[in-house]
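Hey, quick one: can you model this chain's 3D structure?
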Amino acid sequence: MENTGHLKTKSMIIYPAIAAALIALDQLTKYLVRVNMQPGDSIPVIGNWLRILYVRNTGTAFSMFEGNKWITVVLTSVLIIACTIFVIKEAAAGSKVTSILLTFVIAGGVSNLIDRLTLGYVTDMISCGSFAVFNVADIGVTCGCFLTVIYLLLEMRSEGSDK
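Sure thing. Here's the predicted structure for all 163 residues.
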């Protein structure tokens, strides 16, 4: 007979591993941009539609709260703590999908928080047309949030059809 507690502990390792991989990828891309470009420099990838554009963002998404470092630090920290509590509860209940998706949100938040605390700004570099400039961490947060909402809506719909 297998020890299910040991199996649960082993399966919980996936969440920090996913977070570490996303944080490492984000920090690496930001580092490469900072050492090879100056703020405002742009490298076209697909014309002007997709380009690498080095921006120092002192705000949150879409530059909200720009220049207010401690507001962004507090907001990000609250998001990270709330998501971490939720991931722990969901993972313990066996909900791997929600836990993995929210791990992307946590990792993105942590990586951008690292920038805010060490540099005073977040390094953004991916520009699509006239849309906002963002980074790998932002992709993790956005996709994690969007896919979590979609997943939960589908779950609620499924539960509603079972009744």
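One thing worth noting: The chain has one domain: 11-153.
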